[in-house]
TrEMBL record:
SUPFAM superfamilies: Cupredoxins
Entry GO terms, CC: membrane
Domain Cytochrome oxidase subunit II copper A binding: 33-142
Protein name in the entry: Cytochrome oxidase subunit II copper A binding domain-containing protein
GO molecular function: copper ion binding; cytochrome-c oxidase activity
InterPro entries, A to Z: CcO_II-like_C (IPR002429), Cupredoxin (IPR008972), EfeO_Cupredoxin (IPR028096)
PROSITE patterns noted in UniProt: COX2_CUA
One Pfam family here: Cupredoxin_1
Amino acid sequence: MSSQTVLLAMLAAIVGGLALWSVLGPQAPVSRITATNVEFQMVTGEWKYQSPDGQQVIESYRWDPATLIVPRGSRVTLKIYGVNGSLHTLSIEAFQVKAEVKRGEITTVQFVAAQAGIFPIVCLNHPDFEHKGPMIGYLVVQ
Ligand SMILES: [Cu+2]
């Protein structure tokens, strides 16, 4: 076998190896979002402002955390501890979730996030600025 033949054979092996590696070699990571069991620990919080002269007081209740992200099809558990405010009526209309959250108590709700989208988590007692809100969070189902 001539040295030229050996060189061509080595070159062919290298090209073949590169071609094979491009097919079977490491791939870019594939992001797969799969349904799962997801539990969130939440509290009822309150933002408050009082002017220096004490004449103006502004309060706004909040869910904390206020944005929850889950894969579609997940079984979601919310455990909500009532801290600020005596009563909050939780509603996630899209998933027929409704519950009362009382100060000093933990309220647990469970549901399956069956459809994708962005769904408001509303407190029916504090739904807007006029009612010490908006106490609205967002459930993002991907
Ligand atoms: Cu509320």
